[in-house]
């Protein structure tokens, strides 16, 4: 393990750091000019580096590792490049605490950690250590909704915390914030979706949906609703209860009129309704 290349001697006071709860989160704000491998090290900082004895640096690294061990291998206390490989190796060597915490740390940091940690866990293959049931157990609410939806559509949904993976289900801070069920030949919008209390994006493009349910107004965190390319003839008045809605996409449907309540959408920025039967 040669990941410990240099020490951070001070962390600057900054309001942006108040909500950071891990070394990985803090590393995005760190000054790497104390790294001797950088192309340019300021003269003053080079003098600081030169004054640090190898024994002192070794002691500091050991102190960090001791603290990490005392807190049951909490991966927030070390950089991801060191914490997870070490924890994996300790697990393989039979360390009882490591074996207990290994999967817990992977799941917890993947669903609630910073994006750099989530990307690292995927790219380095750590997610394979979690079974389907273990993986979904880290979703705070909505895991049962995912199971119901998979039974309805007859296929597994792609779940991720990273939007660049183009998942069906996007998770942030352990909650489902985006759901995409497009081109699945759905005849109606599944009722279980109304239980997703933190949903911000709902996309149901290219299905065979004929109506929007009245409960749609209960999704008060929804910011984007996209039901383009369906057979929808009517929008319920409850649509006006979506006070957070910013984008509404109803193009290429069978709409003949819009509900008066659409004027209550005070946050609406974009409305797409082309290719309908509006008069």
From TrEMBL:
InterPro entries: Leu-rich_rpt_typical-subtyp, LRR_dom_sf, LRR_domain-containing, LRR_R13L4/SHOC2-like. One of its GO terms (cellular component) is cytoplasm. Transmembrane segments: none annotated. Residues 191-271 form the Disease resistance R13L4/SHOC-2-like LRR domain. The keyword 4Fe-4S does not apply. Keywords: Leucine-rich repeat, Repeat. This is Disease resistance R13L4/SHOC-2-like LRR domain-containing protein.
């Amino acid at each position: 393990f040669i990941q410990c290349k240099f020490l951070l001697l001070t962390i600057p006071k900054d309001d942006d750091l108040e909500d950071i709860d891990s070394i990985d989160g803090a590393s995005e704000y760190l000054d790497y000019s104390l790294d001797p491998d950088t192309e340019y090290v300021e003269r003053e900082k080079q003098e600081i580096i030169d004054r640090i004895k190898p024994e002192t640096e070794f002691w500091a690294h050991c102190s960090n590792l001791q603290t990490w061990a005392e807190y049951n291998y909490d991966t927030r206390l070390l950089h991801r490049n060191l914490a997870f490989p070490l924890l994996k190796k300790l697990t393989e060597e039979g360390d009882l605490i490591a074996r207990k915490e290994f999967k817990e740390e992977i799941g917890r940091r993947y669903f609630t950690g910073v994006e750099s940690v989530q990307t690292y866990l995927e790219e380095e293959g750590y997610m394979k250590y979690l079974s389907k049931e273990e993986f979904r157990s880290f979703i705070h609410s909505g895991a049962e909704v995912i199971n119901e939806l998979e039974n309805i559509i007859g296929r597994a949904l792609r779940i991720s915390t990273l939007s660049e993976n183009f998942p069906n289900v996007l998770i942030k801070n352990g909650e489902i914030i985006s759901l995409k069920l497009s081109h699945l030949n759905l005849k109606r919008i599944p009722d279980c979706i109304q239980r997703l209390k933190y949903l911000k994006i709902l996309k149901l493009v290219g299905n065979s949906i004929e109506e929007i349910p009245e409960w749609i107004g209960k999704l008060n965190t929804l910011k984007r609703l996209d039901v383009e390319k369906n057979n929808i003839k009517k929008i319920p008045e409850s649509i006006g209860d979506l006070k957070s809605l910013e984008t509404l996409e109803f193009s290429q449907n069978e709409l003949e009129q819009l509900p008066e309540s659409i004027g209550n959408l005070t946050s609406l920025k974009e409305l797409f309704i082309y290719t309908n039967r509006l008069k």
